[in-house]
Design brief:
Residues 1-99 bind DNA. By secondary structure, this protein is an alpha+beta fold. It has 21 helices and 14 strands.
Length: 520
């Protein structure tokens, strides 16, 4: 393992990941490869030809690609005063690293299961706001308000904000704040309540110190429903301002454009969000109709367009019997980005769509954009980790899934699948089994991966048992979807295996299942 350290940054040369402190930086692989060469030759001019050969070996590319990647590096460094000048342009010659001294350390590889250290940033969890309307049918509204506030807080780079999924583990409970702080690993907890009556909203929000339980701030809000977005921004600004100490961006103006002038359209998006989170074919179809109704009310509602595309992408991942076309999904996500190019969620959706269309280079660009806009989006980080596995970059995947689990301490089962799949690619079968066993329940693909792991370890009895469970559940799923069931059981897994770009990785996945008893 080779580590280059300079200023607050650490470049892991083998994993090809740049860290700032303990947090991975959203930076494309090409840019990291360029940075590695520059810091390895710190203080020395590096020609354009040498840089292009390092990042694009044996490919004929235009110099403009190099310029774009250097600009990306400078944008990252620009977060530190004066650091944008660390990479010096040498006219007609190339570039030179002239930043802080570079310290290089060499050592043994870290265990494949290692995860990033806990962040030293101020950390916060927002618990689900209570619904005080007296109508259980309004739960989606209070949940939606909470989710939007979490999303807005996540945009602050100086904060570590726990993901919605983990915060909502406390929904309907009244946990002791110190316990929440310990379980989520956060210093501060925000909680509150929402009551919607007719055309008005009442909200009460408070911020607590999780170590002492001390109330740092409380505020009551009474607003017209049409002012809901202004209310959310006001709550976000108040929470950030109430946090002890100075945050590097605490004084920035959120300046978010009002997403839609139609409160009804916003309500439809909240309803749709509740449906797609069921992660079922039926739930996706119902959600998509809500989002389409929202677009009909406001064609300029970027999030509604993005969410239509998202349900179509999910249909493909869920192997829906009649998925919408990805061409239609692309039209919707491009419409969303035309309206609001600064929305992290939309870039994350587009990245997954591009992956499904085998446009990997553009997919990585949009993943990087999503993570730069919202470094606290655990779900995008986790999906990026999963796709890195299919790109053959399992070491990077392990780092990113570790970061996702830090942001989402009570993660959905998919995170454990992503983690285990990366470990399987690294031939860490025992650790992969351990990761899968952290899930609250096992689905068909978890049984498949367990079967492959056990088979690779020579534990044939356990492998056969898991393989039988996979075959049974996968056949049942295909029959329910009206799909033809293949005669060869290995063919039940080929769609998933085909996501691997490297044939060797694909063969390794199928080999474990073949050893577990699936027929080809």
């Amino acid at each position: 393992m080779t580590i280059h350290e300079f200023g607050p940054y650490r470049l892991d040369a083998k994993a090809e990941i740049l860290f700032r402190g303990s947090e991975p930086v959203a930076l494309g692989r090409r840019a990291v490869m360029l940075l590695r060469l520059l810091v390895e030759r710190a203080g020395t001019p590096v020609s354009r030809d040498a840089l292009m050969q390092a990042a694009w070996p044996d490919l004929a590319i235009e110099e403009s690609n190099l310029t774009v990647q250097i600009a990306a590096l400078r944008r990252i460094f620009a977060e530190i005063d004066g650091a944008a000048a660390w990479i010096e342009t040498l006219p007609r010659r190339g570039y030179r690293y002239v930043g802080p001294p570079v310290a290089t350390a060499f050592g043994a590889d870290l265990p494949a299961s290692s995860a990033p250290a806990v962040s030293d940033r101020p950390s916060l969890a927002v618990l689900p706001f209570s619904n005080l309307s007296g109508d259980p049918g309004q739960e989606y509204f209070s949940d939606g308000i909470t989710g939007d506030i979490i999303a807005e807080l996540s945009r602050f780079r100086s904060l570590l904000v726990v993901a919605r999924h983990s915060s909502f583990a406390y929904k309907g409970k009244t946990p002791e704040i110190k316990r929440v702080g310990r379980e989520l690993g956060v210093s501060y907890v925000a909680e509150g309540s929402v009551r919607k009556i007719g055309g008005r909203v009442r909200a009460i929000v408070q911020l607590l110190d999780s170590a002492s339980g001390y109330n740092l701030w409380t505020e009551r809000y009474y607003r017209e429903l049409e002012d809901i977005f202004a209310l959310q921004d006001e709550i976000v600004r108040a929470i950030v301002a109430a946090l002890p100490g100075r945050l590097e961006d605490a004084g920035r103006e959120i300046a978010r454009r009002k997403p839609t002038p139609s409160v009804t359209a916003y309500d439809l998006v909240l309803l749709g969000n509740e449906r797609w989170r069921q992660l079922t074919v039926r739930g996706m179809a119902e959600a998509r109709q809500h989002f389409r109704n929202a677009v009909a009310l406001d064609p300029q509602y970027a999030r509604a367009h993005a969410n239509i595309a998202w349900t179509m992408v999910c249909d493909v991942f869920l192997e829906s019997p009649a998925p919408a076309t990805l061409d239609e999904a692309r039209r919707e996500i491009e419409a969303a980005l035309d309206i609001d190019d600064g929305d992290a969620w939309s870039h994350g959706v587009f990245a997954q769509l591009l992956f499904l269309r085998n446009d990997d280079a553009k997919a990585e660009i949009h993943f990087s954009r999503a993570l730069a806009l919202n470094p606290n989006d655990a779900d995008v980080i986790a999906v990026f980790a999963n796709i890195l596995v299919y790109w053959g970059r399992w070491r990077e995947a392990l780092t990113w899934i570790g970061a996702a689990k830090r942001l989402n301490p009570f993660p959905p089962n998919l995170y454990h699948w992503y983690h285990a799949l990366a470990l399987y690619s690294g031939r860490e079968y025992e650790l992969a089994i351990k990761a899968l066993m952290e899930a609250r329940s096992l689905d068909r693909w978890s049984h498949a991966l367990l079967a492959a792991c056990y088979a690779q370890m020579g534990r044939r009895g356990e492998a056969q048992s898991e393989a039988d469970a996979f075959v049974s559940e996968r056949r049942r799923e295909m029959i329910a979807n009206g799909q033809a069931v293949p005669a060869k059981t290995l063919d039940l897994a080929r769609t998933r295996a085909d996501r691997y770009r490297d044939p060797a990785d694909r063969d390794h996945f199928l080999d474990g299942l073949r050893k577990a008893g699936l027929t080809s």
